[in-house]
Specification:
Layout lengths: L15 H4 L4 E8 L4 E6 L12 H26 L7 E5 L3 E7 L4 E8 L4 H19 L12
Antiparallel strand pairs: 1-2, 1-5, 3-4, 4-5
Organism: Streptomyces chumphonensis
Protein name: Roadblock/LC7 domain-containing protein
């Protein structure tokens, strides 16, 4: 029996309200285990990564998943089992990356430059998740048994 891999629909179109915020460079939606579900970049960007291509978006999705898993372990260590992580922020010399849970089994990541209003970006991320969280949710994948 041969299996097929279905391509997930690209949810990048949902991210345009975020990439329209001044200072936001890129946004990505990913499954809890790091699969890229969609991405968008702001218009008219310049610099090292002026447009997020599929390869960069997949790498960002994997990095986001790794960071959320690490933060979940840290939260469990500090606050006990079952502690969820709602939001993360990473600050670099060039900007910020914010991560938030975005429905069941999904996360949202947004990269900004240093001039962005991070509070506004975080608020808009939460509003977007509340508005379209059902579209951002992913179902767990079924276990695959080896064919013989």
């Amino acid at each position: 029996m041969n299996g097929t891999i279905a391509r997930l629909p690209d949810l990048g179109w949902m991210l345009r309200p975020l990439t329209d915020i001044p200072g936001v460079r890129h946004a990505v939606v990913l499954s809890e285990d790091g699969l890229h579900l969609g991405h968008a970049s702001a218009e008219g960007l310049s610099g090292t990564v002026s447009r997020l291509g599929r390869d960069e978006a997949e790498s960002l999705a994997a990095a986001c998943a790794a960071m959320t898993m690490t933060s979940r372990s840290t939260a469990t260590l500090l606050f006990g089992p079952g502690t969820g992580v709602r939001q993360l922020m990473l600050e670099s010399e060039h900007g910020f990356v914010l991560f938030t849970a975005a429905g069941v089994g999904a996360h949202l990541g947004v990269a900004t430059d240093l001039g962005a209003d991070v509070g506004l970006v975080a608020q808009q991320m939460q509003l977007l998740v509340a508005k379209i969280g059902a579209h951002l949710s992913t179902q767990p994948r079924d276990a695959v048994s080896p064919s013989r």
